[in-house]
Design goal:
heterodimer; A: alpha+beta; 5-stranded parallel sheet; 5-stranded antiparallel sheet; 17 helices; 15% strand; B: alpha+beta; Ubiquitin-like (UB roll); 2 domains; 5-stranded mixed sheet; two-stranded antiparallel ribbon; 8 helices; 4Fe4S_Fe-S-bd (chain B)
């Protein structure tokens, strides 16, 4: 079985792998492209850019999203920026350095070849987005402005105020809408993918629920791309939008696509802390704030004074103290863990003791309030609205929260899953970031996959694969649609006593306590006892009001929570098996002085899980990782 | 949490579907934390409704960070509620007084049919974008980004227009249900940048025509849209759109049928 994990990494030197491979890929004659159809599930950065590019090439594209408009995809919320190795600052950046930083930042758990390609196309992404009118920040002379982000010592992050994700998404969205106008992309919104249809071993279509009418629809195609984003909402409270789910990827997993490194969740260090029991989500404060903000806690345990009354010498600027060379720009996993340590020591602030300060007083003194407001104004306002406190007058309070998920469907170098013809792009796949994601790299990967990788790799698949014509009257479509209907009916008929959200919250608690920032064997084993019980109760006691034949928000949520419960169990199993600490995945048993202790001897691999049937344990496969260019070394940010 | 709690009475518009007549229903929202957001307050009301076997109040929402533009309804006659420059997901309960009675209803406009309760269909906006809210740049072969210099002032102003989230509050606040603010923000964003020049006239003509075709009303410049906009999109965008449209309609040359695109 393990031979299924053929990563298809091209041979040859890392610098020329991608260009050589592109030359070797099969081409589809322009006149034949319109005979091929492609389904794209999800219209965030990866999905919209893929749909736009494929439509532009001449393929017949159908794009699906759960939202009322593709412009609402959660990529819209990314604040800080997008990396590119442009070296506009002349500060020593290069493709190789971006590659190096990303491999190291991912704690040597990403594939070198993928990461190099990502760094290589990063410069094209900026050119592409500027050409299509993204209003990036500019210097007075009209050239593009840059700033730096966590985990990097060069200024390579391009940004559009604190709304970079929004502007990039609107860019990709408008290019996709241009293709809608041109008739090459057909847009289906308010549709949720509930199954992949596999015929003769190849992905040939999907089953979706029309969220407006409740109708179950079948759609056929020559290839399917899943670009449905991440699954951080498994924790209930996370920085993800409310509709972010694992459902599309999970259904593909159940059809045979392996799921890789599910336990790799990034905990983002700068979120607004939890305030109360009714809270529905956590709001991220851009990491770019750490360019000018200084993180600290009071030196004394239990110091409850107002932060402005605590004198300089009684403050512990712990990131600057522990990591003098990176300081406040230490990578996300490192900064998050340090915040947790300070709070565990009893030096956390806020009424809950679960927060640290992010202080702009020095920066305001140095640069003036106007400059700070120009850089971060919208973030400061957002903070003020949520907390009722003015961050220009007193430090912000922040705490780590679940954010990005590095795990996802396993894909080879071509972004193809273990189901031929089923591709996966952006956050939904596992590739490129390893065990930790550096700031400003998610937007980069989404757009790289959609604009610059899939147009080639999908062409290679379509050009080199014999595909019989199939229609939605095929038995496989009927069987899949019936399966979806049966599951919905089953869920609707439970008519139990507990709300969907109550299950989601309980799952979230289990996951955060046992598979969150710190994990250990005992906790994970406990979670693996609790989750199956929760699953059983869900299927016996969930209450979904209304009916399935019209818009039913509770039904939508219930389906997603059912998938989160199964995923949560797999995450815990994955975390339990990985007996090492790396990146954002921190097993408390494996550490040296509070720093993650990796085990390259036994765990320098991707763990890809194979679904074997309902309530049966999944099988773990390994893809060994080799590092020929960036040598395995302990990450140090000191 | 030590935060204060308040009690509210909600008069909420309930409508089962587009064909249903709809009407107000009254609910109590008790013991609401002042730190909760408006949507979290409705979440809590919904949890109670579900527990009692009733249908929860349907409303659109997603990022809950004020950026996706999915949320939005009318509170006491104001789109996105009483706070300036704020979406309902970012509106917190500390801004309401204990014992208040709040009327909550969907955005109302012919071009935004009600789907259910507070949810409306805003895909008309997507069709307006599809009619020209883009730059025809094929992927993969643009010039170096710094080869297109953009004066900072222009880039900043373009950004201020581009920041529109497409929530529809401008339409809901307008007595004519005009989409002029939304459409003009996109036209401005692109008209202000060097990349947007080639299709500038075509864009203005097509987007305005599509806006009219969708059934949005005319703009009479009352400024209600600007006042309701959670992202402070300025009325000056509408002036710019009118100018773009006027110039385009008086100077645009017809497309030549010979030669093609090459």
């Amino acid at each position: 079985m393990a031979n299924k994990l053929d990563s298809k990494i091209p041979s040859g030197p890392i610098e020329s792998k991608w260009s050589d491979t592109k030359f070797d890929y099969k081409l589809v004659n322009p006149a034949n492209k319109r005979k091929h159809s492609v389904i794209v599930v999800g219209t965030g950065l990866a999905g919209a850019s893929a749909a736009a590019s494929l439509g532009e090439l001449g393929y017949k594209v159908k794009a699906f999203c759960v939202h009322e408009s593709p412009r609402r995809a959660h990529s819209v919320a990314a604040q800080g920026g997008i990396n590119a190795a442009k070296n506009y600052q002349n500060d020593g950046d290069s493709t190789y350095r971006l590659f190096y930083d990303t491999v190291k930042g991912g704690d040597f758990r990403a594939r070198e070849a993928n990461v190099y390609r990502l760094a290589e196309v990063s410069a094209n992404i900026i050119d592409q987005m500027v050409a299509q009118g993204v209003p990036f920040a500019r210097e007075y002379g009209g050239t593009l402005a840059n700033r730096s982000f966590g985990g990097a010592q060069v200024s390579r992050t391009f940004y559009a105020r604190g709304q970079t994700g929004q502007q990039l998404l609107l860019g990709a969205y408008s290019e996709m809408m241009r293709q809608v106008d041109a008739g090459t992309v057909e847009l289906r919104y308010r549709r949720e993918m509930l199954d992949v249809v596999v015929i003769d071993g190849k992905a040939r279509g999907i089953i979706v629920r029309n969220l407006l009418t409740g109708e179950i629809e079948s759609h056929e195609a020559d290839a399917v791309v899943i670009a449905s984003g991440g699954y951080s909402n498994v924790f209930f409270l996370s920085t993800n939008a409310m509709n972010c789910a694992v459902t599309a990827a999970w259904k593909a997993h159940k059809r045979g696509a392996y799921f890789a490194n599910p336990c790799y969740t990034q905990i983002h260090p700068t979120c607004i802390p939890v305030h109360g029991e009714n809270q529905s989500k956590l709001t991220l404060m851009s990491e770019s704030l750490r360019n000018d903000g200084r993180v600290w806690v009071p030196k004394a345990v239990g110091d409850k004074r107002h932060p402005n009354d605590i004198p300089e010498n009684e403050r512990d600027y712990y990131l600057e103290r522990v990591y003098p060379s990176f300081g406040n720009l230490a990578p996300r996993d490192v900064a998050s863990r340090q915040a947790k340590y300070r709070c565990d020591e009893g030096r956390g602030v806020n009424e809950t003791g679960k927060a640290v300060y992010l202080d702009f007083a020095d920066a305001i003194k140095r640069l003036g309030q106007d400059k700070i407001s120009e850089r971060y104004g919208n973030l400061f306002e957002m903070y003020d609205k949520i907390t009722g406190q003015n961050p220009y007058k007193q430090p912000m309070m922040i705490y780590p929260a679940p954010h990005y998920t590095m795990g996802g469907l396993w894909v080879d170098y071509n972004l193809e899953t273990t189901i031929p013809g089923l591709f996966c792009a952006g956050e939904a796949n596992f590739s490129d970031h390893g065990a930790n994601r550096l700031g400003a790299s998610a937007l980069m990967q989404g757009l790289a996959d959609g604009y610059f990788v899939l147009p080639y790799t999908l062409g290679n698949y379509l050009g080199g694969t014999k595909l019989d014509k199939v229609t939605t009257t095929h038995d496989a479509f009927k069987a899949a649609a019936d399966g979806v209907k049966t599951e919905i009916t089953k869920m609707m008929n439970i008519k139990g006593n507990r709300t969907v959200d109550s299950f989601h919250k309980e799952l979230g608690n289990i996951m955060w306590e046992n598979c969150g920032m710190g994990r250990n064997e005992a906790g994970l084993k406990k979670a693996l006892q609790e989750i199956p019980k929760l699953k059983e109760e869900f299927w016996n006691n969930v209450r979904i009001p209304g009916d399935a034949n019209y818009l039913n928000v509770e039904l939508e949520k219930a389906g997603r929570v059912a998938d989160f419960i199964e995923l949560g169990e797999l995450m815990c199993r994955d975390a339990l098996e990985r007996k090492e600490s790396c990146g954002g995945h921190y097993r408390e048993e494996y550490q040296v002085d509070g720093e993650a202790k990796r085990d390259d001897e036994n765990f320098c691999h991707v763990a890809a899980w194979e679904y074997t049937g309902d309530n049966k344990p999944e099988v773990r496969h390994k893809e060994e990782l080799t590092f020929e260019n960036v040598h395995l070394a302990t990450r140090s940010y000191k | 949490m030590a935060g204060k709690h308040i009690n509210l009475t909600l008069k909420v518009w309930r409508q089962k579907g587009p064909q249903d007549k709809g009407g107000f229903a009254e609910y109590k929202a008790n013991n609401v934390s002042e730190d909760a957001s408006f949507l979290e307050m409705i979440d809590a009301v919904n949890e109670e409704l579900i527990s009692k076997g009733d249908d929860p109040i349907a409303f659109d929402h997603d990022c809950r960070e004020g950026i996706c533009g999915a949320c939005g309804f009318v509170i006491d006659g104001e789109a996105h509620g009483p706070m300036k420059s704020t979406t309902v997901c970012q509106l917190h309960m500390r801004n309401f007084v204990d014992g208040a009675v709040l009327t909550i209803e969907p955005f109302r406009a012919k071009a935004f049919p009600v789907i259910k309760d507070l949810m409306v269909e805003r895909s008309a906006f997507d069709r307006v974008i599809s009619a020209g809210g883009y730059i025809s740049q094929n992927a993969g072969n643009p010039v170096d980004a710094n080869a297109i210099l953009v004066p900072k002032a222009d880039a900043d102003e373009a950004m201020s227009s581009a920041t529109c989230i497409g929530c529809g509050a401008c339409v809901a606040a307008c007595k004519n249900a005009s989409a002029a603010l939304f459409t003009s923000a996109k036209i401005s964003h692109m008209a202000l940048l060097p990349q947007g020049q080639v299709e500038r006239k075509e864009r203005a003509l097509r987007m305005v025509a599509q806006m009219d075709a969708e059934g949005f009303g005319s703009c009479t410049t009352t400024g209600a849209c600007e006042a309701a906009c959670p992202k402070d999109i300025q009325l000056t965008n509408i002036s710019r759109m009118n100018r773009e449209f006027f110039v385009a309609s008086t100077t645009k040359r017809p497309k030549h049928s010979d030669g093609g695109a090459g």
